[in-house]
Design goal:
six-stranded mixed sheet; six-stranded antiparallel sheet; flat
């Protein structure tokens, strides 16, 4: 008989598995687990695990249900079964199912469940199994116990109390009425008292995942030691995402810290003096992505009847505020004449018309910042551009997927709408005074799948510059053509003797406009070496490139007309890059094994520390640096592969950290100077990280 499905799921449960294997709560497979084995786990745990294995493949179902229930209930494992757990394969006898045991025995914990009056049907089985199992479990094995004194069993104490305090990260003051919750199967929690203290009793010993919540606060890591105010914006602590706690008997207090959230409030004032109700306001946050600082839109809202607005729950950082264009329908037809539209142009705090003129709003320590906007009523002029399709391409077919975007002179997309009219085959927009670029493109209904040739096949695109100055612009023309983006020339340097793999090489891009579009990473080129990489149609603009390699290939260089694309973005037009792009890869990549020091390669009762590690090359590279997390419970080590040989600096921080690693000045200003290591071609380097702040 196959091992029951429900118990297979139980066996895979990490907590139950570690208890049964006798590692004392240490995850199996880690170096800490190996050390735990050498310290001789309790005989009870060893017997229990052997009994677990003996239950597999047997045909006597009911005694083994009781046997396992009796063994696992004190460890808090059997109670992990839910009513939806799969029953044993005896549909004619429901009393042989886990559901029936849960319903009849109320196994939380098991010792309170045995009642002959209520469980007459199961009591004989359970009593016999309990006696048999108790004798086999606690009997000494001479072959194993020779020369060793008897040790206390892990079953003597299986529940513990989690207790501690929650504090304000900025002030250190206690935080009352914060919810400390144990997630997962334990699924319990408690509120802190007036002194910020909490206590949760009867928690199964072993690893537990704990979250801490309080309105107006974020469970957020503290900026790592070594960060100074001058480079703080280049090193950002990320949300904690919960805490891994090893629960044990008589464990010390656990201390959690929450950071208070800030807010930005303001009021929109109209030049007409009327209430500014329903104006759309957007908020962008300064973030770090792929090692670069950029803006990312984070929230939107609309003004109330009195023109006020508010963004709350903000983490410490820099923000930008701007309004969406708003048309005044009540003024349609006056005072500029019939058909004249009036409205309010998009404004960037405090009074700029473009993103380049905005002022940052700094939020820190839970403060609420005031930021007002003043909008001026002005006419919006009709802009019409006739769309000219290539000869032989019917407008009815090409225009069904036509789209248009309004850009400023720097290539940043503006929040003004442009629409294609199928009847007149033209693009129409309403724009305030200013200079713009209207980009029109037609994407085929079904794009080709990866690896099936040129992604640009079937694309039509064109653009036209327009200046609006107090009057309509009716006679523009946008000539569409099939763009011919030049492919990326791919060169592979064969330095190793191993055969070349057939994995794909992918190049991604992100805009370098300095505004919220920069946070979008899109595919640009793809292919399998040897041979060129076919490119995807990309709207004209300035872009950073990101190289993604597989199967033992790593970057040697990436250039456009000789310019290093790791230092400057590539400029793309409708025909791709003005200069030929050349990506050179090498096949003698290096590896790097990172390990925690011995002092941190074990788990103690309380919150488990973890560390974020960046291995940053000292040379230029378009390959993104993926941060890795080191913690004892997952083995305390990790191996990075596919690295370009050369000199590196390894930076280690306590907690979750985003680092602007592409800013060399910021790295030089860090108190954490990093660890230098040289990686040789085709070899694996080893480094024990310096876990700062611990």
């Amino acid at each position: 008989m196959a091992f029951p499905q429900g118990l297979n799921r139980l066996r895979k449960n990490s907590f139950c598995d570690t208890v049964l294997k006798g590692h004392g709560g240490v995850p199996s497979g880690s170096r800490a687990a190996t050390a735990a084995k050498s310290r001789r786990p309790s005989q009870a745990a060893e017997k229990l695990y052997r009994s677990w294995n003996e239950c597999q493949g047997t045909t006597s179902v009911m005694p083994n249900v009781a046997r396992i229930a009796r063994a696992l209930a004190p460890e808090g494992c059997f109670s992990r079964f839910s009513p939806e757990s799969a029953p044993f394969p005896h549909p004619a006898k429901p009393e042989y199912s886990i559901r029936y045991l849960e319903a009849r025995l109320k196994l939380r914990p098991f010792k309170t469940a045995i009642s002959p009056a209520r469980n007459m049907l199961l009591a004989p089985y359970l009593l016999m199994a309990a006696l048999t199992f108790s004798i086999s479990l606690f009997a000494q094995d001479p072959a194993q116990d020779q020369g060793q004194a008897a040790q206390p069993t892990t079953l003597d104490r299986t529940l513990a109390t989690l207790h501690g305090v929650v504090r304000n990260a900025a002030t250190g003051e206690a935080l009352p009425r914060a919810l400390v919750r144990i997630e997962g199967d334990a699924n319990t929690g408690a509120l802190t008292d007036g002194d910020g203290r909490f206590e949760i009793a009867n928690i199964p010993v072993g690893p537990q995942h704990v979250s801490v919540q309080k309105p107006g606060f974020l469970d957020r890591g503290i900026l790592p030691d070594g960060a100074t105010s001058s480079v703080g914006q280049f090193l950002v602590a990320m949300p904690a995402g919960g805490h891994n706690i090893l629960v044990a008997a008589e464990m010390p207090d656990v201390v959690f810290t929450l950071a208070s959230t800030g807010a930005i409030r303001g009021q929109v004032q109209l030049s007409t003096g009327e209430p500014a109700e329903g104006i759309a306001i957007a908020l962008a946050q300064r973030t770090i992505q792929e090692g670069r600082l950029l803006w990312q839109q984070s929230a939107t809202t609309k003004t109330r009847s009195d023109g006020t607005f508010r963004f709350g729950g903000l983490a410490d950082g820099d923000y930008a505020l701007f309004s969406e264009p708003s048309m005044d329908s009540d003024l349609d037809g006056a005072p500029g004449g019939t058909g004249q539209l009036w409205g309010y142009a998009s404004a960037y705090y405090p009074d700029a018309r473009e993103p380049s003129g905005l002022t940052r709003i700094h939020v820190a320590n839970g403060q609420e910042t005031q930021a007002n906007l003043s909008l001026t009523l002005e006419p919006f002029q009709a802009v019409t551009a006739a769309v000219l399709f290539p000869q032989g391409v019917p407008a009815e077919r090409a225009g069904t997927n036509l789209s248009a975007a309004v850009l400023d002179n720097a290539g940043r997309q503006l929040p003004y709408q442009a629409q294609y009219d199928e009847q007149s085959h033209s693009v129409q927009a309403e724009l305030p005074d200013g200079s713009y670029t209207l980009v029109v493109s037609s994407i085929p209904p079904q794009e080709r799948r990866r690896g099936e040739g040129d992604f640009g096949t079937g694309v039509l695109a064109g653009s036209v510059d327009v200046t609006v100055a107090g009057r309509t612009v009716p006679n523009l023309r946008v000539a569409l053509s099939a763009p011919r983006p030049n492919p990326v020339q791919l060169i592979v340097q064969r330095n190793a003797m191993s055969p070349m793999g057939a994995g794909p090489v992918e190049v991604q891009i992100s805009q370098a406009s300095g505004w919220i579009d920069d946070s979008v990473v899109a595919e640009f080129a793809n292919g399998v070496p040897p041979g060129p990489l076919e490119t995807v149609y990309t709207r004209p603009g300035s872009y950073w490139v990101h190289t993604q390699n597989e199967r033992g290939l790593c970057e040697a260089s990436f250039t456009a007309g000789g310019a290093n694309l790791a230092r400057e973005p590539v400029v793309l037009g409708f025909s791709g890059s003005a200069a030929s792009m050349e990506l050179t890869l090498r096949d003698d990549c290096a590896s790097l094994q990172l390990s925690l020091p011995d002092t941190l390669d074990s788990i103690a009762a309380g919150e488990e520390p973890f560390f974020t590690v960046y291995a940053i090359p000292n040379f230029d590279s378009t390959s993104d640096v993926a941060p890795v997390t080191l913690r004892a419970s997952t083995g305390g080590s990790v191996t990075l592969s596919g690295l370009t040989p050369g000199n590196y600096h390894v930076y280690t921080f306590a907690g979750a950290v985003e680092l602007a690693y592409r800013n060399r000045d910021a790295l030089a200003a860090l108190a954490n100077r990093g660890q230098a290591i040289a990686l040789s071609p085709g070899a694996t380097g080893n480094l024990v990280v310096e876990a700062l702040g611990q």
